[in-house]
Amino acid sequence: MPETGMCACETVFVDEEKVRTVQENISPDETLHILANTFKLLGEPTRLKILLALSIEELCVCDIASLLGITRSAISHQLRLLKSSRLVKFRRAGKMVYYSLDDQHVKHLLKDGLEHLND
Amino acid sequence: MPETGMCACETVFVDEEKVRTVQENISPDETLHILANTFKLLGEPTRLKILLALSIEELCVCDIASLLGITRSAISHQLRLLKSSRLVKFRRAGKMVYYSLDDQHVKHLLKDGLEHLND
DNA sequence: CAAACGATTGAATATATGTTCACATGTAAT
DNA sequence: ATTACATGTGAACATATATTCAATCGTTTG
């Protein structure tokens, strides 16, 4: 005989309704993975610093490498990830490639994240 | 003789001023690491799903485990991380422990993240 | 065309981390 | 107290990934 307020454990008492409700109201797995991927990209010091830097000013690979103190190659690898998820865009100018934030949402996410720290 | 608009590369042409400006305006490394850690916690499907579920309703460990289809142990490990970063809080009710979001910032981050997907 | 140089890519390596299993802890009921 | 059960923890393992080095690509300039 099921009781209300119990959890979905291995016992006979399972609040199936509660779990089902959440199950139905949560975002679909595909959306969820895309969202997780976006947050993951922000969740790494190197990439986050790149994005924060680009939120201030357009920069080339060398500028960023100099700023972070790591290899241009490493920066390039990270920019590739950020590029493929549409978080940054780029333009060529001769031999250089200048990177900048792709849209405003990223900037908002960064801002909201910083606000979360001061609670 | 330095030129303007050049980047901080290995050549003699280095836009030190540009890099210095960004350097000074970017968040300090400590802030940056804390922020990165927050995003990293959101940037993993299991944890993100936990948080999205908790944004709908308070749940115990078993409910979440049942919802995600992974071990209670795994859930517990993830909740420990989320707890230590103040993203979730908990209350005991007998043998059960009910988890919920710690503050509204998390919910906002989730919402903003989802909005980012529809651009 | 050839040299120079910024950027990119692939392989390799070191490190981080998500999950599970086995066991420990805490609370409630008998 | 002893048992039952939800949760927490530590070790182990598999996997993911950030960085570097070496080589290549693209563009510009001699």
General description of the model:
2 copies of one chain form a homodimer. Chain A has helices at residues 16-25, 29-42, 45-56, 61-68, 72-84, 104-117; strands at residues 59-60, 88-93, 96-101. With 119 residues, the first copy, chain A, is mainly alpha-helical. Chain A has a 3-stranded antiparallel β-sheet with strand order 1-3-2. The N and C termini of chain A lie far apart (44 Å). Chains A and B meet through helix 1, helix 2, helix 3, strand 1 and helix 4 of A and helix 1, helix 2, helix 3, strand 1 and helix 4 of B. Chain A binds a DNA duplex (30 and 30 nucleotides) through residues 7, 9-11, 44, 46, 60-62, 70-80, 92, 94-97.
The strands making up the biggest β-sheet of chain A line up spatially as 1-3-2
CATH superfamily membership of chain A, which one? Winged helix-like DNA-binding domain superfamily/Winged helix DNA-binding domain
What is the name of the CATH architecture of chain A? Answer: Orthogonal Bundle
Beta-strand content of chain A: 5-15%
Question: Which chains make the largest contact?
Answer: A-B, 58 and 58 residues
Radius of gyration of chain A: 21 Å
- Secondary-structure element series of chain A: HHHEHHEEH
Number of domains of chain A: 1
CATH topology of chain A: Arc Repressor Mutant, subunit A
- Helix content range of chain A: 55-70%
